[in-house]
Specification:
Blueprint lengths: L2 E2 H11 L5 E5 L12 E2 L9 E2 L3 E4 L13 E9 L13 E5 L11 E4 L3 E3 L5 E4 L9 E2 L10 E3 L7 H9 L4 E5 L3 E6 L4 E2 L10 E2 L2 H11 L3 E4 L7 H14 L2 E5 L10 H7 L3 E5 L1 E2 L7 E5 L2 E6 L3 H19 L9 E6 L3 E2 L6 E7 L4 E4 L8 H6 L2 E5 L4 E2 L4 E6 L3
Parallel strand pairs: 1-20, 6-7, 14-17, 14-18, 15-16, 18-22, 23-26
Antiparallel strand pairs: 2-13, 3-12, 4-11, 5-7, 5-8, 6-10, 9-10, 19-21, 21-22, 23-29, 24-28, 25-26, 25-27, 27-29
Helix pairs in contact: 1-6, 3-6, 4-5
The structure holds adenosine monophosphate and magnesium ion (MG).
The site of adenosine monophosphate (AMP) has 18 residues, from loops.
């Protein structure tokens, strides 16, 4: 039986275990998933302060001010950054401020330095313009109020969140533990890059990509040694991988050939194969299983199939294990500028290139071994069975994580 892609994804998401939580410092929060919401302990800004270099004033004093009619104010204090002043702004007086200086008592506006000139001696300034009450003041709590919900549990932290978290004084947060993910590549023919190829061999290229993809979704990749195509080696490799990690990702060995030993090894180890084969192109022979209590994602060996199925099925699972509320792949939109057809009976996730003008073209050879077109592709476009997408159509794309 071949599962529909969406059913397969649902089965996976329903079954993967949730990881426990830990506290992580700010410097380790990027890409992690919050397991508790973050509320602000303080107001932001923490106090009324100046958005300009200038002077704290009473706006009413300057109602008549203008270039032709300067108004003199006496400078009664100065507030350098990081200090507070007990000077009080009374009528006809002002206090020297800099951007961010906390506003002294009595003032209701800030006149910017450019609208003033110093009277010789520096004890007085001439104001050459009016200011409205509240002008050039950043108010306490206008950005964040004490007690505000800043980020909900289940949020995957992006760089853009971190400044706000730091600014509210939060030095650490509760996040899901990073999943440790074993990455195995199977195949007699595989050799590591850098070696001299034996006759019949090829260079192994999946582990490096899958490892980086695991890291991109918050996991800790554990790159395992190459696995030979024999049952004993495959069993040992799977056992070690499952015992020492939270999830196992394998590549290769999931088809129907004599040397496709991932499924036999799972069964021999007493594991459970939840499903095998999906209505998906590339990536039909994908396996989802459980070994020693750990989820196993058996990706096809062809590099494009391995990477596409990781993106579509393993990435959401690893995010779900971390408690992410949104596990959808990143989306982009563009305009197709050539016609693409899928004559197969499976949804085809074609590798495409979205250029700076939003134009979408095929990235080249649409075969599951074709690495140059994968290297060029910055997105996937799903073409449904029997569907023709015409040049000019607006299309939704799946993007790589960044
Ligand atoms: P398999 O899924 O094991 O039948 O492999 C399918 C195709 O992908 C074969 O041509 C393999 O040589 C190739 N292949 C399998 N694993 C890898 C890998 N880790 N790196 C590069 N090519 C691979
Ligand atoms: Mg193989």
């Amino acid at each position: 039986m071949m599962l529909d892609f969406n059913d397969a994804l649902k089965r996976i998401l329903d079954q993967v275990p949730a990881l426990d939580e830990e506290s992580a410092p700010l410097s380790e929060l990027k890409g992690r998933v919050l397991s508790a919401s973050i509320y602000s302990d303080i107001d932001l800004p923490v106090a009324n302060n100046s958005s300009m270099d200038g002077y704290a004033v009473r706006a009413a004093d300057l109602e008549q001010a203008g270039k032709e009619h300067p108004i003199l104010l006496r400078v009664v204090g100065v507030v350098p950054a990081g200090t507070v002043s007990d000077a009080v702004v009374e009528s006809r007086t002002c206090v020297r401020l800099f951007t961010g200086s906390f506003l002294p008592e009595g003032a209701d506006a800030v006149i910017m330095q450019e609208d003033t000139s110093e009277v010789v001696g520096g004890e007085q300034i001439r104001c050459l313009d009016r200011v409205k009450p509240r002008e050039n003041i950043r108010f306490k709590g206008e950005d964040v109020e004490k007690g505000d919900l800043l980020l909900e549990s289940g949020t995957r932290l992006h760089i853009r969140h971190l400044g706000m978290v730091a600014a509210t004084g939060c030095a650490e947060a509760k996040v899901a533990r990073r999943p440790r993910v074993a990455i195995l590549a199977t195949g007699h023919e595989l050799q590591s890059p850098g070696e001299v190829l034996r006759p019949g061999a090829i260079y192994e290229s999946n582990r490096i990509v899958l490892g980086e993809m695991v890291a991109m979704c918050g996991g800790l990749p554990k790159i395992c040694p190459l696995v030979q195509d024999d049952l004993a080696s495959t069993k040992v490799a799977l056992r070690v991988a499952a015992e020492e990690n939270d999830a196992v990702i394998t590549s290769g060995g999931v088809s129907v050939g004599d040397y496709d030993l991932i499924r036999p090894a799972i069964e021999a180890l007493g594991g459970h194969i939840d499903f095998w084969r999906i209505r998906l192109r590339p990536g039909k022979p994908f396996v989802f299983a459980e070994v020693f209590g750990k989820p196993l994602f058996g990706l096809p060996g062809n590099p494009v199939s391995a990477i596409t199925t990781f993106m579509l099925l393993a990435r959401p699972a690893l995010l779900k294990m971390q408690g992410a509320s949104d596990v959808r792949p990143p989306q982009l939109k563009g305009r197709l500028v050539e016609t693409l057809t899928n004559q197969s009976d499976r949804p085809h996730f074609m590798r495409v290139y979205l250029n700076e003008n939003r134009e979408v073209t095929s990235a080249g050879l649409q075969d599951s071994h074709a690495l140059q077109s994968l290297s060029k592709a910055n997105a996937w476009l799903c073409v449904e069975p029997g569907q023709t997408l015409s040049s000019g159509e607006e299309v939704s794309l799946i993007a790589w994580d960044s």
